[in-house]
Design brief:
The complex is a heterodimer of chains A (315) and B (391).
Chain A lengths: L4 H4 L28 H13 L3 E5 L3 H4 L13 E3 L5 H17 L9 E7 H6 L2 H10 L4 E6 L25 E2 L2 E2 L8 H6 L5 E5 L4 H13 L4 E6 L3 H4 L6 H10 L6 E4 L2 E4 L9 H5 L10 H23 L1
Parallel strand pairs in A: 1-2, 1-3, 3-4, 4-8, 7-8
Antiparallel strand pairs in A: 5-6, 7-9, 9-10
Chain B lengths: L3 E5 H11 L4 E3 L7 H12 L6 E3 L4 H13 L4 E5 L1 H16 L5 E6 L13 H5 L6 E4 L3 H15 L8 E6 L7 E5 L3 H7 L16 E2 L5 H33 L6 E4 L6 E4 L4 H14 L4 E6 L1 E3 L3 H8 L4 E6 L10 H12 L5 E6 L9 H17 L6 E2 L5
The chains are: A alpha/beta (315), B alpha/beta (391).
The complex binds thiamine diphosphate, iron/sulfur cluster and magnesium ion.
């Protein structure tokens, strides 16, 4: 029997606010926009993981901004292949290390394998390869950097775009309020694979984020972390407020922070005194067109989802 | 030298892969490739091959996983056919541009639609510009030998390119043929353990697969094109060494009874064996007929083809695939451009035959030869034709 995730993370190397790792495997000089929440999230992920890691990137903003040949922002091995296959590529890297260690061709048993993709690369085009890799049980961590649209190609909607949001392919108009569908819950989909570790995180709660990454890297088998990643460019907000937006989304219960360890759900931020969703929505011009009626609808949905989540956490 | 055993050709592929001691196999089942990967999973399950067998959820992931494994420095194998290959194509281009020596067996099958599980070369032609080295086998022995040759070539530091061994689905993959296996000791003389010159390694971090801005994209493609062209030298050298060690010699283009041939049949793959029977019969009747069979498909062996064609009057180019552009079969375009550059002008007619498993018989080849000879004599404009269409 493999040890449980709970056992594996019992003594994981926790990061404290007073002792944040100073390493920057994703180093400066990359070309992300000002206030980019996605690159902030990825930087925190890498600070938590350090240098004994191999990174596989999906196509998307984080790939483009960090690798314009002959420059690179990566101090660790980094491999980009395509948009929809980061989890499959990481499967191959992980399996290669496993067998080469076993056959004595290398002696590097402690390397961590990270695959990351945007919400498009994860929730949409890459969902199949992600599901395959999770189901097969590869020992790797997958991080979804969710900025709620296809930013790299110019802010088109994804299945992770929230209800009501304006994107270039979900424009509000006489017959539309913008995005007409509710956000796909990929963390729950990942959890349905009954993998050892699933979590959600926000860069506004950076210690929590880094520790979840540490746990995800510590468990044996697949781990999935869904990180809310503000994109001032695509969300039409000021670059200076992206961390504030990443905080408000949690404080309004729109994006709850939780962990699923060995199938057990647990809130990691209880949000005792939630703020109304309007507080969050008004920070971004992508929601500017929403009427009171739509905002109420969103509030009701958020309340209901929170209730559902609490029920899951009871078990 | 090992003894001959009667074995299904698919299993001989798996056996060669085992002798190559691959590290990672990522594959998804599709007829007629299935027996290859089924047998590999057995070899792994029985502990005869120490490899990670990754039963991925699609061919797209089979190729992606192979890329990851190869980039990490593992000797990697995959296999597919038809629709599976079509699903892989996006990543095949990337595998070759990343210079990863993945080896893949393709049990050739027609492309949908209509869906057909049977043999033709539609898939081979679909992947012809992906930057992979490709060889095409005629019989089971050749398949076995070409798989080992593929690792030898692909991993050569002067090459570092992925490589396909094509074998006709069913008509070759499912045949039981007498095959002379090599022992592990013999294979070890030919194939050394793979050491990747660069790989995904935290002790030596590199960035792989970066964005290619307009200032570098052209140069990247030029470098790749040169690498593919230059691989030919190594391909031939590796065949020579194989022959010196094991007594079976191979060349980029095989010719059969071409000494004084006036009419040549140019064909890829196992159907050449049927053509050989037809040629023998025609020779008995005094017809000066021969066969030209490229064994190397990528890089295209232009010089060898020119050499083989230079004295023929009539050239029947047999395509096992149709290119839906109103100009015939894909192989015919390539042969025509080779001949144009060499200033050779045989009477060239393109016959598209054996699509989606349609039988091509000895008599069909005799008919093709009669047809081209009479067309040439009458001096009619050679228009491509699809053979054996039921009207
Ligand atoms: C097969 C394929 N389809 C489409 C694209 C174009 N494309 C590149 S990145 C991208 C969107 C990326 O969105 P996401 O995954 O959310 O990442 P982000 O840029 O938002 O970080 C698209 C549509 C592609 N590269 N490959
Ligand atoms: S578009 Fe958005 S996600 Fe992309 S780099 Fe800019 S801020 Fe970051
Ligand atoms: Mg996105």
């Amino acid at each position: 029997m493999m040890e449980s995730a709970a056992e594996a993370i019992r003594n994981y190397e926790k990061i404290k606010a007073s002792k944040i790792p100073r390493v920057e495997p994703l180093t400066n000089g990359h070309r992300a926009c000002q206030g980019c929440g996605e690159v902030l999230a990825l930087r925190l992920v890498m600070k938590a993981l350090g240098h004994n890691v191999i990174v596989v990137s999906a196509t998307g903003c984080m790939e483009i901004i960090s690798s314009p040949y002959p420059q690179t922002a990566w101090e660790v091995p980094w491999l980009h292949v395509a948009f929809e296959n980061a989890a499959a590529v990481a499967s191959g890297v992980e399996a290669a290390y496993k067998v080469m260690n076993r056959k004595g061709k290398i002696n590097q048993p402690d390397v961590t394998f990270l695959a990351y993709g945007g919400d498009g690369g994860t929730a949409d085009i890459g969902l199949q390869s992600l599901s395959g890799a999770l189901e097969r049980g590869h020992n790797f961590l997958y991080v979804c950097l969710d900025n709620e649209a296809y930013m790299n190609t110019g802010i088109q909607r994804s299945s992770s775009t929230p209800y009501g949001a304006m994107t270039t392919t979900s424009p509000p108009g006489k017959k539309s309020i913008g995005q007409m569908t509710w956000k796909k819950n990929v963390a729950a989909i990942a959890a349905a694979h009954e993998i050892p570790y699933v979590a959600t995180a926000s860069p506004a709660f950076h210690i929590d984020l880094m520790n979840k990454v540490r746990k995800g890297a510590t468990v044996k088998g697949p781990a999935y972390i869904h990180i809310f990643s503000p994109c001032p460019t695509g969300w039409r907000c000021d670059p200076s407020v992206s961390v504030e937006v990443a905080r408000l989304v949690v404080q309004t219960r729109i994006f709850p922070l939780y962990e699923v360890v060995d199938g057990k759900w647990r809130l990691t931020n209880k949000v005792k005194h939630p703020k109304p969703v309007i507080e969050y929505l008004k920070t971004q011009r992508r929601f500017r067109h929403l009427t009171e009626k739509e905002i109420n609808k969103i509030q009701q949905r958020v309340d209901k989802e929170w209730e559902d989540l609490l029920k899951r956490c009871e078990y | 030298m090992g003894k001959r055993v009667g074995i299904e050709v698919s299993l001989a592929v798996s056996h060669a892969v085992m002798l190559a001691d691959v590290d990672v196999i990522a594959a998804y089942p599709i007829t007629p490739q299935t027996h290859i990967v089924e047998h590999l999973s057995e070899l792994v399950a029985d502990g005869l091959l120490d490899a990670e067998f990754i039963p991925v959820e699609s061919e797209h992931s089979a190729m992606s996983t192979s890329v990851g494994a190869s980039a990490a420095g593992a000797r990697t194998f995959t296999a597919t056919s038809s629709q599976g290959l079509a699903l892989m194509v996006e990543i095949m281009y990337i595998a070759s541009s990343l210079r990863l020596p993945i080896v893949m067996a393709v049990a050739n099958r027609a492309l949908s639609g209509p869906i057909s599980i049977w043999n033709d070369h539609g898939d081979m032609m679909l992947s012809r510009d992906t930057g992979w080295i490709q060889t095409v086998a005629e019989n089971g022995q050749e398949v076995f030998d070409l798989v080992l040759h593929a690792y030898r070539v692909a991993e050569d530091p002067r090459v570092m390119l992925p490589m396909i061994v094509n074998l006709d689905g069913f008509t070759l993959s499912h045949m039981i043929e007498p095959i002379e296996f090599l022992s592990q000791e013999e294979v070890n003389k030919y194939l050394r353990p793979y050491r990747a010159p660069i790989r995904m390694d935290p002790e030596n971090p590199i960035t792989m697969g970066p964005v290619g801005m307009p200032e570098v994209y052209t140069e990247a493609k030029k470098a790749q094109d040169e690498a593919l062209k230059n691989s030919k030298k190594v391909i031939i050298e590796a065949w020579k060494e194989f022959g010196d060690l094991f007594g079976r010699y191979y060349s980029p283009v095989e010719t059969y009874r071409m000494e004084d041939a006036e009419t040549a049949i140019l064909i890829l793959g196992s159907l050449a064996e049927t053509a050989m029977t037809a040629v023998d019969k025609m020779r008995d009747k005094g017809k000066k007929v021969g066969i030209i069979r490229p064994r190397l498909f990528r890089p295209f062996p232009a010089d060898e083809i020119v050499e083989a064609v230079k004295n023929v009057k009539n050239l029947a180019v047999i395509d096992r695939a149709v290119a839906l552009n109103g100009m015939g079969g894909p192989l015919s375009f390539e042969i025509r451009s080779v001949l144009y550059d060499a200033n050779l002008h045989p009477y060239l007619k393109n016959y598209i035959a054996g699509l989606g498993g349609r039988d091509v018989t000895v008599d069909d080849f005799s008919d093709i030869v009669s047809d081209i000879e009479s067309c040439a004599q009458k001096g009619v404009k050679p228009e491509y034709t699809i053979v054996n269409v039921r009207e």
